[in-house]
């Protein structure tokens, strides 16, 4: 674990013993099982099934699923620590954790007893992989405008439409599909093996290239009424809202992981490369880039911990805290990765060094789970709420 002046990093002082031990275990796993292969996964644009199995076998895919369903029942901070370590090693695998746990979280919160009993043990064990199918070719940020039709029919629903950019959609066993019914936004589970489901792998993404992201056609797919998740009409506000809140939180942590990876690579490089007769770490402008990266890392990590502690206390401010953490951490990750490439010079432009991968991955973090611009527009509302009392008070 990294240290500052021989002491534990400031952020870690906020962890209890169990959380610190969990982080050490995650870090060790990522160093052994993920860091050595992450570049190959990126180049192959593929996650081998055995690696997904390994993540499942160590219990990480089910870590936040309640214990009664066979999961790890971990707290939000611990989930964040896992997302951070996975993000440090491989953003694609971090995104698997994100989408899979988003669906599990929705089912734990809004699923019927039958859905919880049927799906959560499988998701906890990782014997089934879940994906969130919300975005469409014509619909992204404006999630309420989805066009996929979810129409009531005899004893169930017909799902008809197209979903795009679905992370791990090419290998997922079940999709949480958010669409539109006659009575408003509706969410249903659609199993991959139902007639009318077709997935196509999307390749050549800028980042999270191993994430088996798919374009999916749902052609008059029939699902039973038992597959309805939450209430008809609340598919976006309740179901997608719950999923995206958790997704945002883990993406924030994943972004912190990218910044940490940039720091590790950059510190190693500037301590090794010489120009003008000295190590490049001696040049002031090089030091500035490392200092900024370090400050961004600490600040983003503290925002993530703050969001996690609020989640664990079921504090109503957990939601804006996750949005704030995601906004700050993802934009900082892009800055850090840009500087990491810069510090590596021409080597940073080649894929012989990992920083090129970090830059593409960081850019994706700014687009998913609410783009930077949506947060720039939306976070002001929370500031207005939080500081309204002050501005109406006696202060000038
Ligand atoms: C690699 C990857 C994986 C993904 N995985 C999934 C997944 O698993 N499941 C899923 O459902 N979706 C997924 N997505 C889709 C993702 O959620 C969308 O890309 C995201 O919501 C943005 O939508 P969009 O791409 O259609 O951009 P648009 O919404 O079209 O936005 C385009 C630009 O306009 C800006 N903009 C839009 N509205 C506003 C506004 N009101 N104010 C200011 N600026 C605005 C945006 O910030 C952006 O810069 C994934 C995307 C990527 C790239």
Main sheet strand line-up = 1-4-5-8
* General shape: globular
The separation of the N and C termini measures 47 Å
Report the major sheet. 4 strands, mixed
Tally of strands? 10
CATH superfamily (homologous) name of the largest domain: Butyryl-CoA Dehydrogenase, subunit A, domain 3
What small molecules accompany the polymer chains? flavin-adenine dinucleotide
Second-tier CATH architecture of the largest domain: Up-down Bundle
What is the beta-strand fraction?
A: 5-15%
SSE series: HHHHHEEEEEEEEHEEHHHHH
General description of the model:
The chain has 396 residues and is of the alpha+beta class. The chain folds into three domains: 10-128, Acyl-CoA dehydrogenase/oxidase, N-terminal domain (Butyryl-Coa Dehydrogenase, subunit A, domain 1), CATH 1.10.540.10; 131-233, Butyryl-CoA Dehydrogenase, subunit A, domain 2 (Beta Barrel); 237-388, Up-down Bundle (Butyryl-CoA Dehydrogenase, subunit A, domain 3). The chain contains eleven helices and ten strands. The strands form three sheets. Strands 1-4-5-8 form a four-stranded mixed β-sheet, with helices on one face. Strands 2-3-7-6 form a four-stranded antiparallel β-sheet, with no helix packed on it. Strands 9-10 form a two-stranded antiparallel ribbon. Strand 4 (174-181) and strand 5 (184-191) form a beta hairpin. Helix 3 (76-89) runs antiparallel to helix 4 (91-110), helix 3 packs antiparallel against helix 7 (284-312) and helix 8 runs antiparallel to helix 10. 48% of the residues are buried. The structure holds flavin-adenine dinucleotide. Residues 99, 131-135, 140-141, 165-167, 205, 208, 213, 364, 367-368, 371, 373-374, 377 line the site of flavin-adenine dinucleotide.
């Amino acid at each position: 674990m990294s240290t500052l002046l021989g002491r534990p990093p400031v952020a870690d002082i906020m962890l209890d013993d169990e959380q610190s031990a969990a982080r050490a275990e995650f870090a060790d796993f990522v160093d052994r099982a993920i860091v050595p292969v992450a570049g190959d996964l990126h180049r192959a644009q593929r996650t081998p099934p055995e690696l997904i199995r390994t993540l499942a076998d160590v219990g990480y895919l089910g870590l936040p699923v309640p214990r009664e369903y066979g999961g790890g029942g971990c707290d939000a901070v611990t989930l964040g620590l896992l997302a951070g370590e996975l993000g440090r090693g491989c953003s694609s695998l971090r995104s698997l954790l994100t989408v899979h746990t988003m669906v599990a979280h929705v089912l734990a919160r809004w699923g019927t007893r039958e859905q919880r009993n049927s799906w959560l043990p499988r998701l906890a064990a990782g014997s089934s992989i879940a994906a969130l199918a919300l975005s469409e070719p014509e619909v992204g940020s404006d999630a309420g405008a989805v066009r996929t039709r979810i129409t009531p029919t005899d004893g169930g629903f017909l799902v008809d439409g197209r979903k795009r950019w679905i992370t791990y959609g090419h290998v997922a066993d079940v999709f949480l599909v958010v669409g539109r019914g006659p009575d408003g936004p509706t969410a249903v589970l659609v199993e991959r093996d139902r007639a009318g489901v077709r997935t196509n792998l999307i390749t050549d993404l800028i980042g999270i290239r191993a994430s088996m992201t798919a374009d999916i056609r749902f052609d008059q797919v029939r699902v039973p009424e038992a597959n309805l998740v939450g209430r008809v009409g609340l598919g976006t506000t309740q179901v997608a809202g719950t999923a995206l809140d958790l997704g945002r939180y883990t993406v924030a942590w994943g972004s912190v992981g990218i910044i940490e990876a940039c720091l590790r690579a950059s510190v190693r490089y500037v301590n090794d490369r010489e120009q003008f007769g000295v190590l490049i770490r001696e040049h002031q402008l090089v030091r500035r880039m490392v200092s900024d990266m370090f400050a961004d890392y600490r600040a983003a990590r503290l925002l993530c911990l703050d969001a996690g502690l609020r989640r664990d206390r079921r504090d109503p401010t957990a939601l804006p805290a996750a949005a704030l953490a995601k906004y700050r951490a993802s934009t900082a990750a892009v800055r850090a990765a840009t500087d990491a490439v810069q510090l590596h010079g021409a080597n940073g432009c080649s894929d012989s060094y990992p920083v090129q991968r970090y830059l593409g991955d960081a850019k994706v973090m700014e687009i998913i789970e609410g783009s930077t611009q949506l947060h720039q527009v939306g976070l002001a509302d929370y500031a207005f709420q939080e500081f309204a009392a002050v501005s109406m008070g006696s202060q000038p």
